[in-house]
Amino acid sequence: MGERWQILPADVREACEQQANTAKEKYYSELAEYKKTPEYALYQEYLAEFKAKHGGTRAGAYCFDACTIFSPRLMRTMSRRQEIKTGVGI
Fold it and tell me: Would the pLDDT of 43 be above 90?
């Protein structure tokens, strides 16, 4: 994919980058508005309750924290580090 991007004419790349930047600005603008809504506040409460109820994650699970998603491979690595630190698996 990177090679194909590099061989595109500069004007085509610039058009794509401008389109991506416009979409990114729209996304962040809409996200800022969403964060002001009661639905966002309710979802944040739900997340807090979920995290309190379920605590840590198991190896291979997806961990949703803010907008970060950890892969199963990363979770296994984190689990091994936790086991080494504490002698207990997650």
Answer: yes
Longest dimension (CA), the chain: 57
Smallest Cα–Cα separation from 82: which of 57, 63, 61?
57
Residue 27, token pair as written in the block: 């996304």
Could you tell me whether strands 68-69 and 64-65 are parallel, antiparallel, or unpaired per DSSP bridges?
antiparallel
Distance in angstroms (rounded) separating the CA atoms of residues 75 and 63? 8
Amino acid at 68: T
- Report residue 60's pLDDT band, with 50, 70 and 90 as the boundaries: very low
Identify which of 60, 55, 81 has the alpha carbon closest to the alpha carbon of residue 70: 60
Residue with tokens 């389109």: 19
pTM above 0.85, yes or no: no
Q: Which residue has the tokens 């807090």?
A: 48
In whole angstroms, give the CA distance from residue 18 to residue 46.
37
